[in-house]
Specification:
The chain has helices at 50-62, 84-100, and strands at 10-17, 20-28, 40-43, 66-69, 106-108. The protein is of the alpha/beta class. The strands form 2 sheets. It has a 3-stranded parallel β-sheet with strand order 3-4-5, with no helix packed on it. Strands 1-2 form a two-stranded antiparallel sheet. Helix 1 runs parallel beside helix 2. The N and C termini lie far apart (37 Å).
C-alpha cells in the first residue's frame, strides 16, 4: 500500500516477487492543479494483433497518465491453452510504460472474449 503520496511527483518503486527483487519502476502521481491536463486513453478489443501493436506505438507518443480498456483485452476466450495471450498483451503494456518512463496504470474490464462467451 502506498500512503501519503504528493501530487505531481515521481516515486521509485522496487518490485519484489516471492521475496526476490524483480524490477525498479517509476510511478508518477497526478497533478492536483485542475488546469494541468491529464491524458487518458480509452480502448477495447485489444488482443495481440498488428493493429494493437501499432496502437501501442501511437499510445507512447501521447504519454498517457492512465489507460482504460473496456473489454476483450487479451482474447483468450477463457481457454486454458490460450492463457499465453495475456502474456503478450501485458508485454505490450509494459512496452508503453518502459518507453514513456513511468508505470502507466491500467483499468481493465472483461469482455465476452475474455470470459469464454464467444
Amino acid at each position: 500500500m502506498l500512503n501519503n503520496l504528493k501530487p505531481n511527483t515521481q516515486y521509485l518503486i522496487k518490485v519484489k516477487y516471492d521475496t526476490q527483487f524483480y524490477i525498479d519502476a517509476i510511478y508518477k502521481t497526478l497533478p492536483s492543479d485542475p488546469s494541468v491536463p491529464v491524458v487518458m486513453m480509452n480502448a477495447g478489443d485489444s488482443g495481440y494483433t498488428q493493429a494493437s501493436k501499432n496502437l501501442t506505438q501511437l499510445t507512447v507518443g501521447y504519454k498517457p497518465d492512465i489507460i482504460f480498456i473496456g473489454g476483450d483485452v487479451a482474447y483468450d476466450n477463457n481457454i486454458p491453452a490460450c492463457s499465453y495471450t495475456w502474456d503478450f498483451f501485458l508485454k505490450q503494456m509494459e512496452t508503453i510504460s518502459s518507453e514513456v518512463g513511468y508505470v502507466v496504470p491500467l483499468v481493465l474490464a472483461l469482455g465476452n472474449h475474455d470470459a469464454g462467451l464467444n
